[in-house]
Amino acid sequence: MAGLRTVGAIALTLAVLALLKADVSHMVAGAISAMVATFAIKEKQRREQAITLALGLPVALVAMSLGALLSTRIVAGDLVFLALIFAAVYSRRFGDRGTALGLIGFQIYFVSLFVRAAVSALPGLCGTLVVAFVCSAVVRFVLVVETPERILLRLREAFRARLGQLVSAQIELLVAGPDHVEKALEDVRRHTARLHQSAMMIQGRLEEGTSDSATALLVQRRVADAEIAAERLGVLILTARSSERADTLTLHLPHAPAPAPGNRLRTQDDITATLRRDLNALRLLVARPASNNRGAAVAHLRNRLLGYRDEENLPRTSVPVQDVFRGIGEAARGVMGLRLALDGPQDESDDTPATTRSREELDAEDVAMAQAEETEPAEDVRKGLERPTTRAAVQVSVGSALAIVGGEFLSSQRWYWAVLTCWVVFLNTASTGEILVKGYRRLLGTVLGVVAGAGLAGLVGHHTWTAFALVLVFVFAMFFTAPLSYALMSFFVTAALGLLYTLLNTYSSAVLVLRIEETALGAACGVIAAAVILPVHTDRRTDELLGMVLTRLGVVTDAAVEQLSGGPARDLLDMARELDTALEDLRSSTQPLTHPITPLRTRRQTARYVVALLETCAYHARSLAATAELLPNSKSVAADPLLKGAGRRIAHNIDVLVARVEDGDSDGVVETGASLASMLETDTPGTPRHDRVTDRVLRHLQRLDEGLIGLARPLGVVSVATSDRASSRGGRA
């Protein structure tokens, strides 16, 4: 949608300028200005967008005027450019509006350099800016209307589609032969990660896209339920077709081998066929909204799947296979809750007792959620050079100064490409390693784009409208590929610029080669500035984020265990999403360590292993939070005081890991000992209490405990059995 809106703004601007008989240089300036005026604005509410767009026009006029007035005064122009760069980066501390206005000021000054603005042409260029901003407003608010409600609606449908894709992948995992199980498992991993991404995107749009906080909380809860149930179903399917219980780490560690194959399903073709039938029914429930129900067929499928939540409806087979049927029942309940939250009330005339019980549980949860209190997000208390925006502003200003000096040696007319690259590589980066990887990707995309631009320039020649049409295609491709690959985005940007050079009659192979040289210089200046001026090394950045993830993991786990033990209710889902956000930041910060060009393979493997373990721990923490949110009004979940004792070792181990990461404390030890899952056993050893939610909670705690113990080794923390530690203390005493 961002690409469509930007392309629409550019096309409308070109059409208006053509009617006004503007020359090619003004049309190029108008196209770039319309693009900037559209993509720079990130606010979610239409009113805020309109205010920022209105404020952006005078900023653009000032920037264009400065560029034209200082075009013959080299030193003064360079100093003003550096001031704009500093302001553009520093203004990010003021939120989306500050970011947008800073970006508009910088980019429009760049446009003045690109089209070689002069004082004599200033009135026409200012008129072009007005046309571009007006056209951007028309497309944004009239032609391509984008409201938070519509965005959230599309995200909800995307989540439904992702959920259906995950169920399809789980079906393939169920029936895959020995030679195809690894590929099927990789598909399940990929679709599980995509489902989680969709859930996070919905979380980011709930506040603006829903009518009130109660509705937002309801959708958030139902999405979390469906996500957790679907992920758990994948683990249960993997366990059922293995000779050992599958670890959730298998779903989070890339290229992790599947557990050893077993024969639990190999000799039970009828059970496998039933499971496949029920998974197909689950996929149908996911894909079909309530408004598309016809007759009693969908209700029959729903009732059958929900029936698996009752022990008497389970087929007589092995316990792991029965767990899969239970997982299908819980997933069906999650889907029903999702349908109620997204599609509204449904016909209850065909409900069975199992379905009625599930509806009553969901209604009770609605009551509990309606009583939840909202919490305010914590503010960043860092000041001065400790603030990331201030540090980045100083770094990019120094890097840009180096790029100006070096760029002048390469070309006295097109030195600004080096400055642009230096500025761009600092966007959305927070460490030297991230800047290095981004600079490498931009250089790679630029080299490939130069080759494509040279070929297209030769084909298009001076066919103005053909060139503009291709530019529109490349702009859309730039936006479409930006979330997928920065190198691809840079490729389309460079190819489009090659066409614009052709339109300005400044195209030559030497110009495009110079583009590569300036890009390499700008990336190098950015890396040098980041490494020398107030550096934030990748290790330091990842340690900070790792400590934050572990801290939030401890907060979620402690609050969930306390609530499950009978303690006061907390806003657990928001805590869980804060954990997910911190984990996403950590995952991004480790890209320099996990990138294929990284020469240190051991560090790359360690980073992947740590992130995968944390993803596993976060999944179990989310599951604990979702279960605890059912209290106190659920008929199926009751507080169990025993759980408080089960969580003490986990809390201690998290504290030790946090102290190790944040303070370098090497004295603490991670405690191991008797399995927390041993609390699942009844009077008959080995017989699990499947009819109690406490069993599932203890399993999540056990997996969480195992994940934390697994983190101890790569973090350099000693693990000691609880009994051994106690005896050693006694010896020292």
Automatic annotation (TrEMBL):
Coiled coil: none annotated. InterPro entries: Memb_transporter_dom (IPR049453). Residues 341-386 are annotated as: Disordered. The keyword rRNA-binding does not apply. Keywords: Cell membrane, Membrane, Transmembrane, Transmembrane helix. The chain crosses the membrane at residues 50-68, 74-91, 98-115, 121-145, 416-436, 443-461, 467-484, 491-514, 520-538. It is a multi-pass membrane protein. Pfam families: FUSC_2 (PF13515). Residues 403-528 form the Integral membrane bound transporter domain. It is found in: Cell membrane. It comes from the Bacteria. Belongs to the YccS/YhfK family. This is FUSC family protein. It comes from Streptomyces yanii.
